[in-house]
Fold each of these.
Amino acid sequence: MKKNYYFLLIVSVLLFSSTRNAKDSEFLIVPVDFNSDVSIPLSTIADEIKAIELELTDESLINPDRIQRFHFLDDHIILYELDKILVFDMNGKFVCTIGSKGQGPREYTRIEKFAVDEKAKRLIIVNSPRIICYDLTGKFLFQSNSFFETGSKVVFDLIRLNDDMFIMADQFVGMNERGADAPGTFSQPKLYKVDDNFRITDSITYRKTFYESLVFYMHIWNNLILKSNSNAYVYFPDYMGGKKKASEPSLQDTLYRFEKNKLIPDLKLQFKNNGISGSEKIIELGGIYRSTRFVFAVYIKSGGAGLFRFCYDIKTKMGYNMKSGFTDDINQIEKRINIRPFNSNTEMFYYWHTHMKPDDKDEPNPTLYIGKLKK
């Protein structure tokens, strides 16, 4: 009996160990050497890149410094700046503008966030306390105040995941740890599930954070919910300028997979000393996202070092820390390139560049480059 007991015990331990290791292996640890500075060629990560010259007209004039994000839907390219939305076809020909700036019921005073609903074929503008919807031709569909009816919310991203629409938003409450009114801000970002009229049907809390001081709500990256094949990933950074309790310095360094209405840790960026020096953060991490093969991040290093971009190849286990971005060895662009992911498919990326010719009297619209990542 003793032999059988010990045999079963050993088997149980081995099974537990193998199960634990299998689970551990699913959680990826990505080392980041923030003291290095390289620039890798785009051909290292990209299979192909397509160039699209965006047509310049009186209505389609683009300020490259004001571009917030590109979207792609039904062979259309949709970009939004701080105060306008432009639609082009996939050959770069200008199609139309979406909506107009103003105080009217079908207008917007500012574009806080913008999204494309692929299923409903509609374009969504967040202009608190309203959410406004248009179709691809610019026709006004409807507007809703439902999402903002309960609590004061700040929207940071929105996206359709399969059949459901989700909004990442934060609610700020002035309170201390005991819940009494006091200086400071209690942050509680949530992933809200909403119906087609943006009424809240469910929510999941991302985290809760108390800031001793928070004077503005600023992020250095605005892609917080992204899709990669059949998976969805969520990352919500700390606020720039937000000061936590000195006894609790921490770096939000984990990317979460959103699966079956749960946020599951998927990978962690491993900075030296967790990006902490003494009681202060020396790394301000702005964003993390991933494709099947690559992990990308953007962060600020203190001490005036500036903005860095990071790329990690899961296949080769090589990491690249870049202050100036990628080198475009495919299109031979001298300026370093900063790529951005497709919101609906992080296996794809884009960037833009303005090519000035010697005989150009006016600055042309930028050329849009669309790339496909290697697998």
Note: Confidence is low (pLDDT under 50) at residues 5-25.
Amino acid sequence: METLVIGAGQAGLAVGYHLRRRGLPFVIVDEYERVGDVWRKRWDTLRLFTPRRYSGLPGMPFPGRASAYPTKDETASYFETYAREFGLAVRTGLKVERLSKIDGRFQAFCGEQVLSADNVVVATGAFHHPSVPAFAGGLDPGVVQLHSSEYRNRSQLRPGRVLVVGAGNSGAEIAMGLAGHHQIWLSGRDPGQEPTSASGTIVDRLLVPIMWLVATRLTVKTALGRKLRDHFIDPPRGIPLGRVRRKDIIAAGIERVGRTTGVRDGFPLLEDGRVLEASNVIWCTGYKPDFSWLELPLATTTHGFPIQDRGIVEAVPGLYFAGLLFQYTLSSALLGGVGRDAEYIVDHIADHIASKRCG
């Protein structure tokens, strides 16, 4: 095949859209059985952290009230509809376990199947392996432990107190969903909050477009854009709270506590020496990138992200990335921002194909 796109999330679908527009042959593969399953398998009350107005993929606005936040199931259905409406060739249930390059062509090993392609776009995003601190293994076996990727709803928890570790958007929203059913501690550094929550007030209507402009226009090609990137990535930290406000956390009766740094007597230990006798711990501590399955001469940053220029890997001609954190701007990993990166990549693929044909 000419181009293989690995991953049918927002990045892969956006790349497929632009490949289709250019009339370039491609196939998208995804490990899940159904387009959108990457969202369906998250916790029940999850919503996007951006409103519908800023959550549309290229060529199709996200349906519904512009200021409302889509649910995870609405997002999954939107992905499925998007792929169908634009005739994107997606082969589901096919996981690429290894990618190598032999005799100038990429070979994607998917179990017993091997797919060969001239170009490959890795659109698996930035979130791969759940990150849980090593000391978690020292908790008492009776304490229920779940990473946010495993958490669905409160039926998975024991009666008693819940410690949510990680105070970013995921941790705050899971804690809010449990408030009223359990005593909740929310542990971690305060990431701050956005100046508005896009709720439709006059202030929101004034500020949200400015915030989105910053997220989409402040690129890593500028000193200020690189400073913003480094602020969020080195060390890794969550973006400011969007929909949940600090006052909401207080009003819900959730107790804010410091960082969880270890274990004492089988229970979580805070940095101030306090021990929390929690019955449940939910780790909202993010993910680690994993590109070890790429058997290619690929250089990575100290945090494990591939070194690329707007998704193009100069060291491996024909290899591209889409949907990475700060690939070009803060919005590069978001539904509403990935389309521009996808178009840039596809333009490069088209030029690469044309030059090979001419050569």
Note: The chain has a mean pLDDT of 91.
Amino acid sequence: MRFFSLYCDHRTDVYDKSILPLLHRMLNLEKLDLTLVVQREKEFIDGDTLKKNIITHMPRLNEFTFNICSIIDHYNQINLPLNEDMRQTFGDFHDNEIISCVDHFEERKYSQCHIYSYPYKLKLYKNITNNFPGGLFEYVNEVSLYDERPFGHQFFLRIAQSFPFMEELTISNSKAQNDKQFIKSENHNQTLPIIEYPNLTTLRFFESHDDYVELFLSHTKVSLPNIVRLAVNYQSLERVTYNFTRNTTRINCAKFVSLYLYGEHEVDERVKDYFPHVYID
């Protein structure tokens, strides 16, 4: 076998026991592509471990691309590596640009390290945090955002610039937006540019603070196309729209063609009037 590609976007804990032994049998491999989410006990997968556990076992390998997210729990961890530590392990990788991003989540007691070859060729980019290094991702059409730290206006602007063809966006962040007071103090966002998502067709909020729902529903902050599907907590939507009477959020809400509401709710005529293009039974 000369070419091999392995793609799995579900978390696995058999990387060391099953995946590496499989790769070690491929002595004639010339091209390898790995996309994995790996649960490990003690250490991240970095440049040093890739060289030691994969590259040295494949003498004919001349093209190695990867997109690997490794996850470790904080239990029994003493020294958690930083992003700079991770970058230094890829000093000998000259054929491709390697991007690394390390995040430590204290509330959920785990850390993750995302390493990938750039340019990025996948259509999905999951769990982007505030540490997102940026770049241009022309192939990606589905993005999810997650962090235990607040997202600011500039962060969403960077996401729009990095993913110009993004069609699906999922936001999970329970922390209040960190620059909301600044936006209010500057005459309703006059100093900050309106964020444009021209290709967005699906927008989901899961366990998200009201600030992010408000950001995307306010036409003075975010510009949306005319065909968008929305998934959102009903109580959050009710608060952000001032019980479906707020004019600032009315324009963007009129652009939605599909509405999925979760949480306890009872749909009445106010909701139907506020989303005129959505069929609500």
Note: The chain has a mean pLDDT of 91.
